[in-house]
Every structure is written in C-alpha cells, then in structure tokens.
Amino acid sequence: MKRRATYRLVATRREIFHVNDGFDHVLMLVEMDGEPIEYQVGVAGKFVSRRSVTFHDRTRGTGDMSGYSVTTFQEGAIHSRYEGRRDSSTGVTSGTWHVYQSFGKLAGMKATGTFTVNRVEGTGEYILHIDGDYEL
Fold it and tell me: Domains of the chain by range and CATH?
C-alpha cells in the first residue's frame, strides 16, 4: 500500500563540530521532534510522537546525512533508518528510508520510501515529506 505524510520538524538539540581540514567542513548531530501536517490515520491509531537523530557531514552546506527516527502511534510504533544528501544550492535534503523495527499493531511491517526536507526560512522549522510503500 502506498502512503504519503508531511511533518513539521523542530530542532531540539544541535551540536556542530568544525573539522578544520578545509573551509566550512562541519559535522553535526541534530535531534528533532515532529508533528504531522498531513497523514492518514492507519491501523495503529492516531499519531503520538516523532523523534529523530541525524548525523550530517557537510562542506559549504552540501553533504551526506544519515539517522534514525522513532514514530509512535496509539497502538504501535515504527523505527526507521534513513540516508540522504543536502544540496546547498537548493537547500533541499532528499534520500531514502526503511523501517527496521515495528511494534504493536504495526509489528512485522515492511516499509521503504523516499523523503525530502525543506527549511522554512526564518523560523527554525523544517517540512518533511515522506512517500513510501508499506506492507503489513
């Protein structure tokens, strides 16, 4: 089954480390909380929470990222792993994700898909768009 969702993300913690091997090379560890803007209520009930932790390796704003997210619903949860890349010329991060653990009414779920993240200028917020194929 195909599903699509959109979340508003807010950074709750950010650590930045300068590599000092060249101009503007940084490593970042970012923790974010999210809430849905658009999503379909599924078999596990209403949304409860979403938390992610992401590692970024960027030079001049462009670079790879990878991380984990935990999304909890009333009667289940999913743990996802994602990888992507940010393009400083567009400010967009895009990549792929997959579920590696699932619980409750979502136990045994298999899911993969793509995502994009766009920064909302001047707010410190981000918009996450997720598309995926889910199998229960």
Answer: 2-135 (2.40.350.10)
CB neighbour list of residue 46: distance below 8 Å, 6 or more residues apart: 73, 74
Whole-prediction pTM:
0.92
- Give me the tens of pLDDT residue by residue for the chain, a chain 136 residues long: 999 999 999 999 999 999 999 889 999 999 999 999 999 999 999 999 999 999 999 999 999 999 999 999 999 999 999 999 999 999 999 999 999 999 999 999 999 999 999 999 888 899 999 999 999 8
3-class DSSP string for the chain: CEEEEEEEEEEEEEEEEECCCCCCEEEEEEEEEEEEEECCCECCECEEEEEEEEEEEEECCEEEEEEEEEEEECCEEEEEEEEEEEECCCCEEEEEEEEEEEEECCCCCEEEEEEEEEEECCCCEEEEEEEEEEEC
